Amino acid sequence: MATSVLKTSQPIPLEAFVAEIERRRAAAGYPEMPRNSGNRRTESKRALLKAIEEAGGTW
Amino acid sequence: MMSLRPDFERALRFFGRVGLGFRAKGYDPPVLVGGAAVELFSNNLIATGDFDISTPRQDAFERELVALGFTKPAGKGMATRGWIHQDFKLGFEVVSSTLLDGMADRERLVLIDLGEDGIAAILSIEDTIADRMGQFHSGSAPEMLQQARVLASLHKDVDVTYLDRRIREETGGDLGVEDIPTDTA
Hints:
A: mainly alpha; B: alpha/beta; globular
């Protein structure tokens, strides 16, 4: 198994974590990922996301 | 993108601060799971609307949220267990008391050092992929297979033995690591 900055019991500084993910995205050719369909959302989740949306949040 | 989207990073730092409160009390830290973990492990290939949290100490977690200025959405149609904060547009919600029904290994959590904002504990990449596969297997979220595929393409250093076991546990033995598509088309 390859060693990795993500495979350690020590906390990873946020900047190093983000840089490592970015390096992997580049190596993988910047793949796209389908977003969640939302089919499995609970009523509580729907209400929370509605509140976020009404506050101006987008995702 | 060499940084997280600003709202996501703000939310992560608040999450880390909740963890600081937990550590001060000697509690295991709350763990970030679900779509926010996917966003973090892919750096925004998907954007999530909220942080799903696993902790057996929901009351303590929510007391920390209140102390940090979180509020519950109020008004018609707002019957939610979630919380919001005026400083960023993501919600927080405790979704479970055990990590994937107690099957996920806490020793594999990814810990992110946020400096003065503490340490954020994230569900392992293997368990995050297995969770996607379990949701795919349920039949109600077909897109989860492709999320698992992309995560696996970004994290080729996963513990394959553990990942395979966890996928089988999440899918009643029907799927394994070989069922994650490997093409990148």
